[in-house]
Every structure is written in structure tokens, then in C-alpha cells.
Amino acid sequence: MLHSIEADKHGAHGKEMADAVSTCVHCGFCLAVCPTYQELGQEVDSPRGRIVLMKEVLEGKMEIEDSLQHVDACLGCLACEPACPSGVPYRDLISPFRAKAESERRRSLWSRFQRLLTQQTLPYPERFRIAAKTGRLAKWFAGCLPASMRVMLELLPDRLPARQDWKEFYPATTDGGRPARARVALLTGCAQSVLDPDINTATIQVLNHCGVDVVVPSAQGCCGALSWHVGNLKQAQKFARQNLEAFSDEVDAIVTNAAGCGSGMDEYPLILAGTSDEKRAEEFSHKVCDVSVFLSRLGDLPSVPDSGVVSTVAYHDACHLANAQGVKSEPRELLRSIPGMTIAEIADSHLCCGSAGTYNVDQPEVAARLGKQKTKNVLATNANLVATGNIGCMTQLKTHLSASGSPLLVLHTMQILRDAYFGQGYFKS
Fold it and tell me: Rounded to two decimals, what is the model's pTM?
């Protein structure tokens, strides 16, 4: 598709946006995998439709406000990328475009307040913990609140898990004084640290058990993905720079256990494009990988004891793990290493569960429909467990499974593997 976008007119991300637009040939392969197109049924709510809208804005042929209803409705799930035969880098367009839009759009007072609330609480664990405790009390008055606020409250657990803090260093478990096989740094995440801190503890325990030293940098912050995906470039850059400083170069990998965080850190070169930190961000991103990928590369893992438990696990592909990072086989291989466990594939696994960062708050109706559909497909597997690799997906699935009356347990892949290794939790005899 020929275009007349002048890349230098659109700041540091102008070239990336222009290249993404020019790569699209309007073939339509993205339509079948786009959740919002499936739900809303409009061309303008598909990837190629949004590309046309964004192109028109970038070329000065459309007012930015006229495109935002449909651009805002995008989940950013990136299911369109692996489906695209032309290799359109949609991620290089959607987030930079949203960043551009924020400097030009007109938001209502309520919209500005809601945005401020999420951006100043979710990325900060202590603030989020306080807000979550306050929110549990506010559930009594939920009926008086706007839909987006009610959704925020519904996603909060009735009781927060006990707070967990992590030391800066956890040595590998080795026999006979053998040296550690590797040394990694772990991103603990923001919302995850509050909603399910055991995921980080389980990740550390599994890595240590596999002979890996784990560093947990105390100066780390939010990965910045939540900010970046809603167009808050300034805040995303702040978090990116904080983590560039916090994580030492003297590790074999920077390990993540939340799909959104891993994807966000992979995009540091784009977030910091045109700044003096761009090259450093590029080097940093090469070290980032999901924990399942790191363990797969490490290989020769300890065998999992046979607990005698026979189970079926429904594995849910988190969008920013499967689509953004191309990670599908590694978590499944880890789960298959557990004696007595089989994997049940979920129908329409490519479709987002509707979590997508703050999408539940920004687009509650579409998010709820996607969550209900995903829950229906999960239940159809007749599995005993649900496994996934992202805290947002876990929260969404738990909420909708509970609403359906299902007691099905939703766990992170690392929690399942840890419990299997040590004969606890689900595998306790």
C-alpha cells in the first residue's frame, strides 16, 4: 500500500509507524483472528481497518478524534501479527499512535480521572495494595459507580494474599559444591506482586531447584507496558530507564514470568527510540526472556517425581506470550514433564480472554464478552486445572469461572511445576 506519510513529521516513532502502514496489503488474513472484529463485526474494528484509519490521520486526511473510538477498542493482543503473511509489525504502529493521540485528543473529566487513577496505582505495588484494600470496601457501593469502576472492583479478590517480600539474591540448589549452572535477574512485576506474589516465589524456587542463581534487583520498577499500551509514553520511558539502571549486565538472562511484562521489556528499543538510551535498550531487550524459554534453553532439568496424581490441564495462551513473544511450546513442554499430566487444548485459543492490561476498565462490555467466551471454552475441555503465564489472564479467568459457578483452579505454569517438584499443593499426596 503506497502512502505519503512523512516519517519525520511524527517524532521518534514516525519511521516505524510509516513502515508498518506501508507493509499492509489489505489481504484480510487478520480478520479471522481479531477478537474485536469477531465481537463487533465492523471493518474499522479490525487490524487492517484500524491501519487505514491511522494512515488517514498520519497523512493529515482525518482528524485524530474521528479514529479514536476504533483505535481505543483494540486490545493490542497482536494476534494479527503471526497471522499476517506480509509481516506487518502492528505493535510498531498501535502504541506509538496512541502516544501521539494522547497529546492531541480531548478527554472528558471522568476519563482523565479514571486514567490518572489507573496510571498512578497499578504500576506501584504499595499504592495498588492500598487501593485494592480500599476497593474491597467500596464493593458495597458498586451499584452506584460507573461500569468501568464496577469492573475494577469485580476483578479484585475478596481477600488479598499475604504480602511477600523477596531478598536480593537466592543461590542455586546444588549438590556436592557444584557451581550454579546460570545466573538470572527476575522482574517481580507490579500488579502480580500484590494479586499473586506466590508466582514470583514459585519462579525463584523452580529456578534454584534447576541450579540457577536468582537476583531480584531492589531498584526495579514496573516494566512500563501498562503505560506504553495506553499511550503514556513519558511514563513508559521513565520505567524503562529505571529498569535499565536496576538490572545488572552481569547475568545470563533477565527473566520474566508475566507475558505482558516480557513483551513490554522487549519493546524498550521502541519506547526509547530517538533517545540516548536507545542502543542500551536494544542490548537490554536481547537478554529478556520468559522463564519457560529460559528453562527450555537451559535443558537437562531435574526430573519431576511421580506423585500418582493423574490430571488434565487446560493451557491458556496469554496473548503477549504467544503472539508478541512467539512462546507456545515451552510452557507446554514443562507441563508435559510432570508425570500423569496431559494438556487439553482450548478451542479458539488464539482469541484474547479480554484482560489486556487495562482493557477491562477501558472497554468493559467487550472485555466481559471475551471473558465469558474464553471461560466457556475452558470448561468444555473438562480439565482439572488451568495453566497460563500472565497475571492479567489469571485474574480474568478466575473472575469469570467464579461467576459461572466453577471451582476450577487457575495457576501459573511455575506454580504448577513448583508444586509438582516438591509434592505440595495440587500434587500433595
Answer: 0.92
